[in-house]
Amino acid sequence: MRKAFTLIExxxxxxxxxxxxxxxxxxxxxxxxxxxxxxxxxxxxQNAIANxxxxxxxxxxxPPGDDAGNxxxxxxxxxxxxxxxxxxxxxxxxxxxxxxxIDQGYSDSPEMLYCPAMAQKHPWLKPGVVNxxxxxxxxxxxxxxxxAGMKYVNKSYHYRDTYWGKEYQAGxxxxxxxxxxxxxxDRDLPDLVLMADAFTDPARGIDSAxxxxxxxxxxxxxxxxxxxTSKAIxxxxxxxxxLTNRALIERAYESFRWGEIVGAxxxxx
Length: 269
Prior knowledge:
- By secondary structure, the protein is of the alpha+beta class.
- It has helices at residues 7-56, 98-103, 116-121, 246-258, and strands at residues 78-81, 137-138, 152-154, 158-159, 193-196, 198-201, 205-208, 213-218, 223-227.
- The relative contact order is 0.14.
Protein backbone atom coordinates (compact mmCIF):
# COMPACT_ATOMS: atom_id res chain seq x y z
CA MET A 1 0.00 0.00 0.00
CA ARG A 2 1.43 3.42 -1.07
CA LYS A 3 1.88 5.86 1.76
CA ALA A 4 0.49 9.40 1.24
CA PHE A 5 2.30 12.62 2.15
CA THR A 6 1.66 13.90 5.62
CA LEU A 7 0.46 17.44 6.19
CA ILE A 8 3.85 18.41 7.57
CA GLU A 9 5.61 17.06 4.48
CA UNK A 10 3.26 18.99 2.20
CA UNK A 11 3.86 22.18 4.16
CA UNK A 12 7.62 21.68 3.91
CA UNK A 13 7.39 21.20 0.14
CA UNK A 14 5.18 24.28 -0.21
CA UNK A 15 7.61 26.29 1.93
CA UNK A 16 10.54 25.22 -0.22
CA UNK A 17 8.67 26.17 -3.41
CA UNK A 18 7.74 29.57 -1.92
CA UNK A 19 11.36 30.14 -0.91
CA UNK A 20 12.61 29.28 -4.40
CA UNK A 21 10.08 31.68 -5.94
CA UNK A 22 11.17 34.45 -3.57
CA UNK A 23 14.79 33.84 -4.56
CA UNK A 24 14.18 33.60 -8.30
CA UNK A 25 11.69 36.44 -8.84
CA UNK A 26 14.17 39.30 -8.26
CA UNK A 27 16.64 37.60 -10.60
CA UNK A 28 13.98 37.15 -13.27
CA UNK A 29 12.87 40.76 -12.84
CA UNK A 30 16.45 41.98 -13.14
CA UNK A 31 16.95 39.86 -16.26
CA UNK A 32 13.79 41.31 -17.80
CA UNK A 33 14.87 44.88 -17.00
CA UNK A 34 18.31 44.18 -18.46
CA UNK A 35 16.74 42.83 -21.65
CA UNK A 36 14.55 45.96 -21.96
CA UNK A 37 17.58 48.24 -21.48
CA UNK A 38 19.47 46.29 -24.15
CA UNK A 39 16.58 46.54 -26.62
CA UNK A 40 16.33 50.26 -25.89
CA UNK A 41 20.04 50.73 -26.65
CA UNK A 42 19.62 48.72 -29.86
CA UNK A 43 16.80 51.10 -30.87
CA UNK A 44 19.02 54.11 -30.23
CA UNK A 45 21.80 52.47 -32.24
CA GLN A 46 19.41 52.09 -35.18
CA ASN A 47 18.52 55.78 -34.89
CA ALA A 48 22.20 56.75 -34.94
CA ILE A 49 23.02 54.57 -37.95
CA ALA A 50 20.05 55.96 -39.90
CA ASN A 51 21.03 59.48 -38.82
CA UNK A 52 24.56 58.92 -40.15
CA UNK A 53 23.21 57.72 -43.50
CA UNK A 54 20.98 60.79 -43.73
CA UNK A 55 23.90 63.04 -42.84
CA UNK A 56 26.05 61.59 -45.63
CA UNK A 57 23.39 62.73 -48.11
CA UNK A 58 22.90 66.14 -46.46
CA UNK A 59 26.34 67.70 -45.97
CA UNK A 60 26.79 66.14 -42.57
CA UNK A 61 23.59 67.58 -41.13
CA UNK A 62 21.25 65.63 -38.85
CA PRO A 63 17.52 65.89 -39.62
CA PRO A 64 15.99 69.31 -38.89
CA GLY A 65 14.62 69.93 -35.44
CA ASP A 66 12.36 72.58 -33.98
CA ASP A 67 11.73 75.36 -36.50
CA ALA A 68 11.41 77.89 -33.69
CA GLY A 69 14.80 76.94 -32.27
CA ASN A 70 13.37 75.71 -28.98
CA UNK A 71 14.72 72.78 -27.02
CA UNK A 72 12.02 71.50 -24.72
CA UNK A 73 8.26 71.04 -24.55
CA UNK A 74 6.91 68.66 -27.22
CA UNK A 75 9.55 69.74 -29.67
CA UNK A 76 12.24 67.20 -28.94
CA UNK A 77 9.75 64.32 -29.17
CA UNK A 78 7.55 65.33 -32.08
CA UNK A 79 8.52 63.61 -35.35
CA UNK A 80 5.60 65.08 -37.32
CA UNK A 81 3.85 68.35 -36.51
CA UNK A 82 0.67 69.94 -37.86
CA UNK A 83 -0.17 73.07 -35.91
CA UNK A 84 -1.20 76.52 -37.07
CA UNK A 85 1.69 78.47 -38.49
CA UNK A 86 4.18 75.60 -38.35
CA UNK A 87 6.33 75.73 -41.50
CA UNK A 88 6.18 72.96 -44.07
CA UNK A 89 9.50 72.41 -45.82
CA UNK A 90 9.74 70.98 -49.33
CA UNK A 91 12.56 68.61 -48.28
CA UNK A 92 10.91 67.09 -45.19
CA UNK A 93 7.27 68.25 -45.25
CA UNK A 94 5.93 68.28 -41.69
CA UNK A 95 8.36 65.64 -40.49
CA UNK A 96 11.12 66.53 -38.06
CA UNK A 97 13.95 64.72 -36.27
CA UNK A 98 13.90 60.91 -36.48
CA UNK A 99 10.58 61.02 -38.32
CA UNK A 100 12.50 62.20 -41.38
CA UNK A 101 14.63 59.05 -41.22
CA ILE A 102 11.57 56.80 -41.42
CA ASP A 103 9.69 58.90 -43.96
CA GLN A 104 12.64 59.14 -46.34
CA GLY A 105 13.56 55.46 -46.13
CA TYR A 106 16.75 55.60 -44.06
CA SER A 107 15.07 53.06 -41.79
CA ASP A 108 12.01 50.86 -42.26
CA SER A 109 11.58 50.27 -38.52
CA PRO A 110 9.39 52.87 -36.77
CA GLU A 111 9.70 50.72 -33.64
CA MET A 112 13.19 52.18 -33.23
CA LEU A 113 11.55 55.45 -32.15
CA TYR A 114 10.18 53.99 -28.92
CA CYS A 115 11.84 52.94 -25.67
CA PRO A 116 10.17 49.66 -24.62
CA ALA A 117 10.21 50.74 -20.96
CA MET A 118 8.43 54.00 -21.80
CA ALA A 119 5.89 52.13 -23.94
CA GLN A 120 4.98 50.15 -20.82
CA LYS A 121 4.22 53.39 -18.96
CA HIS A 122 2.50 55.06 -21.92
CA PRO A 123 0.96 52.35 -24.16
CA TRP A 124 0.20 54.86 -26.91
CA LEU A 125 3.93 55.47 -27.49
CA LYS A 126 4.23 52.92 -30.26
CA PRO A 127 3.52 52.83 -34.01
CA GLY A 128 -0.09 53.34 -35.05
CA VAL A 129 -1.56 54.20 -31.64
CA VAL A 130 -3.34 57.38 -30.52
CA ASN A 131 -3.14 58.67 -26.96
CA UNK A 132 -6.71 58.07 -25.63
CA UNK A 133 -6.31 60.96 -23.17
CA UNK A 134 -5.26 63.46 -25.83
CA UNK A 135 -6.31 62.78 -29.41
CA UNK A 136 -3.77 65.32 -30.67
CA UNK A 137 -0.94 62.93 -29.75
CA UNK A 138 -0.03 59.69 -31.43
CA UNK A 139 2.76 57.22 -32.06
CA UNK A 140 4.24 56.76 -35.52
CA UNK A 141 1.91 57.05 -38.51
CA UNK A 142 2.88 57.36 -42.18
CA UNK A 143 1.76 60.63 -43.75
CA UNK A 144 -1.18 59.05 -45.61
CA UNK A 145 -2.43 57.23 -42.50
CA UNK A 146 -2.35 60.03 -39.92
CA UNK A 147 -5.81 60.24 -38.28
CA ALA A 148 -7.88 63.36 -38.76
CA GLY A 149 -7.25 65.94 -36.06
CA MET A 150 -3.78 64.61 -35.19
CA LYS A 151 -1.37 67.42 -34.29
CA TYR A 152 1.72 65.62 -33.09
CA VAL A 153 3.24 62.25 -33.95
CA ASN A 154 5.73 61.50 -31.22
CA LYS A 155 8.62 59.27 -30.27
CA SER A 156 9.82 58.58 -26.73
CA TYR A 157 13.50 59.39 -27.26
CA HIS A 158 14.81 62.86 -26.50
CA TYR A 159 16.47 64.31 -29.62
CA ARG A 160 19.20 66.91 -29.25
CA ASP A 161 18.02 69.68 -31.51
CA THR A 162 21.00 71.98 -31.01
CA TYR A 163 24.44 72.41 -29.45
CA TRP A 164 26.39 75.54 -28.50
CA GLY A 165 29.22 74.13 -26.44
CA LYS A 166 31.38 76.76 -24.74
CA GLU A 167 28.93 79.51 -25.70
CA TYR A 168 26.75 78.16 -22.89
CA GLN A 169 28.84 79.73 -20.15
CA ALA A 170 27.22 81.16 -17.05
CA GLY A 171 25.59 84.50 -17.78
CA UNK A 172 26.05 84.27 -21.56
CA UNK A 173 22.92 84.43 -23.70
CA UNK A 174 22.88 81.69 -26.36
CA UNK A 175 22.64 82.81 -30.00
CA UNK A 176 19.46 82.88 -32.05
CA UNK A 177 18.87 79.49 -33.60
CA UNK A 178 18.03 78.41 -37.10
CA UNK A 179 16.22 75.31 -38.31
CA UNK A 180 19.34 73.52 -39.56
CA UNK A 181 21.50 74.00 -36.47
CA UNK A 182 21.15 70.38 -35.48
CA UNK A 183 24.23 68.22 -34.87
CA UNK A 184 26.53 67.89 -37.88
CA UNK A 185 28.74 64.83 -38.40
CA ASP A 186 31.33 66.86 -40.32
CA ARG A 187 31.50 69.80 -37.92
CA ASP A 188 30.64 68.71 -34.38
CA LEU A 189 32.51 66.57 -31.88
CA PRO A 190 31.79 62.85 -32.38
CA ASP A 191 31.16 62.25 -28.66
CA LEU A 192 28.23 64.67 -28.45
CA VAL A 193 25.05 62.89 -27.35
CA LEU A 194 22.50 62.78 -30.16
CA MET A 195 19.60 61.11 -28.32
CA ALA A 196 18.69 59.81 -24.88
CA ASP A 197 15.81 57.67 -23.63
CA ALA A 198 14.44 60.44 -21.48
CA PHE A 199 10.85 61.62 -21.59
CA THR A 200 9.66 65.03 -20.49
CA ASP A 201 6.38 66.82 -20.03
CA PRO A 202 5.52 70.30 -18.70
CA ALA A 203 5.01 68.91 -15.20
CA ARG A 204 8.21 66.89 -14.68
CA GLY A 205 11.19 67.97 -16.71
CA ILE A 206 13.45 65.05 -17.62
CA ASP A 207 12.42 61.63 -16.39
CA SER A 208 14.15 58.24 -16.60
CA ALA A 209 12.20 55.53 -18.40
CA UNK A 210 14.32 52.85 -16.72
CA UNK A 211 14.23 54.31 -13.24
CA UNK A 212 17.96 54.11 -12.55
CA UNK A 213 19.47 55.94 -15.49
CA UNK A 214 19.40 56.66 -19.21
CA UNK A 215 20.54 54.98 -22.40
CA UNK A 216 22.37 57.42 -24.63
CA UNK A 217 23.68 57.35 -28.20
CA UNK A 218 26.41 59.64 -29.49
CA UNK A 219 26.99 61.24 -32.85
CA UNK A 220 29.58 58.57 -33.70
CA UNK A 221 26.91 55.87 -33.04
CA UNK A 222 28.55 54.66 -29.82
CA UNK A 223 26.09 54.03 -26.99
CA UNK A 224 26.13 53.45 -23.26
CA UNK A 225 24.02 53.56 -20.12
CA UNK A 226 24.27 56.62 -17.86
CA UNK A 227 23.63 55.37 -14.34
CA UNK A 228 21.63 57.84 -12.27
CA THR A 229 20.17 56.04 -9.27
CA SER A 230 20.07 59.30 -7.29
CA LYS A 231 18.09 61.01 -10.11
CA ALA A 232 20.60 63.83 -10.25
CA ILE A 233 19.58 64.72 -13.83
CA UNK A 234 16.01 65.36 -12.72
CA UNK A 235 17.40 67.54 -9.93
CA UNK A 236 19.37 69.84 -12.24
CA UNK A 237 16.43 72.24 -12.25
CA UNK A 238 15.55 71.62 -8.59
CA UNK A 239 12.55 69.53 -9.58
CA UNK A 240 11.01 72.27 -11.72
CA UNK A 241 10.01 71.78 -15.38
CA UNK A 242 12.77 72.15 -17.96
CA LEU A 243 10.33 73.50 -20.55
CA THR A 244 12.26 75.69 -23.03
CA ASN A 245 15.21 76.42 -20.74
CA ARG A 246 17.85 75.44 -23.26
CA ALA A 247 20.72 75.84 -20.80
CA LEU A 248 19.27 73.16 -18.52
CA ILE A 249 18.60 70.79 -21.40
CA GLU A 250 22.16 71.37 -22.62
CA ARG A 251 23.50 70.76 -19.14
CA ALA A 252 21.68 67.43 -18.98
CA TYR A 253 23.13 66.37 -22.33
CA GLU A 254 26.66 67.37 -21.35
CA SER A 255 26.22 65.34 -18.16
CA PHE A 256 25.33 62.32 -20.30
CA ARG A 257 28.39 63.04 -22.41
CA TRP A 258 30.88 63.23 -19.54
CA GLY A 259 29.25 60.60 -17.38
CA GLU A 260 28.79 62.99 -14.44
CA ILE A 261 26.81 66.13 -13.65
CA VAL A 262 28.45 69.18 -15.21
CA GLY A 263 28.76 72.71 -13.86
CA ALA A 264 26.85 75.78 -14.94
CA UNK A 265 29.42 76.66 -17.62
CA UNK A 266 28.81 73.30 -19.41
CA UNK A 267 32.51 72.45 -19.27
CA UNK A 268 33.79 69.04 -18.21
CA UNK A 269 33.83 68.89 -14.39
